[in-house]
Design brief:
Blueprint lengths: L5 H14 L7 H8 L3 H13 L3 E3 L5 E3 L13 H19 L2 E8 L2 E8 L14 E2 L5 H7 L20 H14 L2 E4 L6 E9 L5 E10 H4 L10 H15 L6
């Protein structure tokens, strides 16, 4: 059976990214979201413009054309993401001793589609179905890093919540560069999380996985992740991505 054609997979990933970003994206933003070189991304975008699948506005931003409006629903089904991630989530919780969540970006925030309890006897509440503020949690930062800063007012939940758009853009740039995100006391006082992106076959970020727990358990006194946690989360994220067909995971 013939192998897949990488350029077509990348074009499909760009189309889905455009469909999920109605405000449009510049070449650099699109390249960062998919982990591609700027030149490669620009070439694919120009080709898509040429065939009428993508439009470029006067400001130079690219967006899906009206003929591809139905691609707005082309994201990975949450149930499929959960089914591919469940074993890796269980393993991550066992290895770290912390709770693990799988989430996707939805209108209005971050939807938790799977939650593995911390493997101890403490009382915990199921978070499946909860919608978290994207700007105030590590899961959200990972997902926003692939789509851009959200528009509108950024609600403050604690004294550490990022509420300035410029500060959030800088934080998302750091997430793209390092490949993982951290939040400490940004949504719920005393809670922290470390998250990494999950990608599909075309390289599009379709979800995120995190470890979540008490601040003292996840970070040291200087608010740096405790040894082993970041590699463990990133390993789980790459494993799920490979199961979804991502070649570079």
């Amino acid at each position: 059976m013939p192998g897949s054609i990488q350029s077509i997979e990348r074009a499909a990933a760009l189309l889905k990214l455009m469909a999920r970003t109605p405000g449009g994206l510049g070449v650099v933003d699109a390249a960062n979201a998919l982990g591609l070189a700027k030149g490669t991304t620009h070439g694919i975008l120009r080709t898509l413009v040429g065939v009428g699948f993508v439009e470029q506005d006067p400001a130079g931003r690219y967006r899906a054309s009206a003929t591809l409006a139905d691609l707005a629903e082309a994201g990975l089904d949450a149930n499929e993401l959960r089914s591919r991630a469940v074993n890796w989530a269980d393993s991550l919780a066992s290895r770290t001793g912390e709770a693990v969540r799988i989430a996707t970006l939805t209108e209005g925030g971050v939807l938790v589609v799977h939650h593995v309890f911390r493997p101890d006897d403490s009382q915990q509440e199921m978070e499946v179905g909860d919608v978290l503020p994207a700007h105030a949690c590590a899961l959200g930062k990972v997902l926003l890093a692939s789509t851009g800063t959200p528009r509108g007012h950024l609600v403050r939940y604690t004294s550490r919540t990022i509420t300035q758009p410029l500060a959030l853009r800088r934080a998302l740039t750091a997430v793209r560069e390092q490949g993982w995100a951290l939040d400490v006391d940004e949504h719920v006082p005393g809670q922290a999380s470390i998250a990494a992106p999950v990608r599909d076959r075309g390289g599009l970020v379709v979800g995120a996985i995190d470890v979540h727990g008490a601040v003292d358990d996840l970070v040291d006194p200087r608010l740096r992740p405790r040894a082993g946690l970041v590699p463990a989360v990133r390993h789980a994220a790459r494993a799920i991505s490979r199961d979804l067909g991502a070649e570079s995971a």
